[in-house]
Structure formats: structure tokens, C-alpha cells
Amino acid sequence: MAFDPGLAERVRESLNHQAGTLLDEKKMFGGLCFLLAGNMVAGILGDDLIARVGASAYTGLLREPGAAEMDFTGRPMKGMIMVDAAVLDDDAALQLWLSRCLAFAMTLPPK
Q1: In which band, very low, low, confident or very high, does the pLDDT at 31 lie, cut at 50, 70 and 90?
Q2: Contact criterion met (CB below 8 Å) for 44 and 32
């Protein structure tokens, strides 16, 4: 599945600004993922956001509007949430999701 290049640019600009550094990019899951120190921060699959938020925040954030389990393999990936494209049209919502992803990624040791 391809990814939305417009969303990719918005995510790229936001994450690089919030992190204060350029994140690496890698094609994964049939989409595009952004990595910090070798750890996945977030990704884009189609026109949805893959939000890596960690296991401790996972259940609570699934209650957010547009949030769903990431289960395209048939098995949910705990700590990863799919955020619907309709939610991402709002810049403030996108920024909030990306800040959550970046906060989690910054707790991980470099790979």
C-alpha cells in the first residue's frame, strides 16, 4: 500500500521540528516510517498514521477519536495505534499524536 506524500511531509516537518534533529525514514509495513536513533517513532500507511505510543499508553489512547488497533496482520500490535486520516486533517490533532509518539520513542535506548 502506498502512503500519502502530503501527510508524509506534514509528519516529517513536525517530527524533525519537535525532535530538534532529522529523523531517519524507512519504508516498512507497506508505508513510510520515521525513526529516531533506530527506533520507530511513527509511520504512514495509506492516509492513516501509525502511532507508536508504547504499551502503557496503548489502552487509554485507543479511546481517542479515530484511534484503532493496528491489526493489519490479523493480530493487534500492542503499543501501535492506527489513527484515521479524518482526524489528521486537524493540525493540532496531528501534532498531539506525533508528540505522544516522540515522547515514547525518546524513552527507548538507541539501536
Answers
A1: very high
A2: yes
Is the Cα dihedral 64, 66, 70, 75 positive or negative?
positive
Domains of the chain with bracketed CATH: 5-105 (3.30.1460)
Q: Is 72 exposed, middle or buried (0-12, 13-18, 19+ CB in 10 A)?
A: middle
Q: Look at strands 31-36 and 24-28 and give their pairing.
A: antiparallel
pTM over 0.90: yes
Sheet order of strands, 80-83 included:
24-28, 31-36, 39-45, 48-52, 80-83, 67-69
More confident residue, 76 or 58: 58
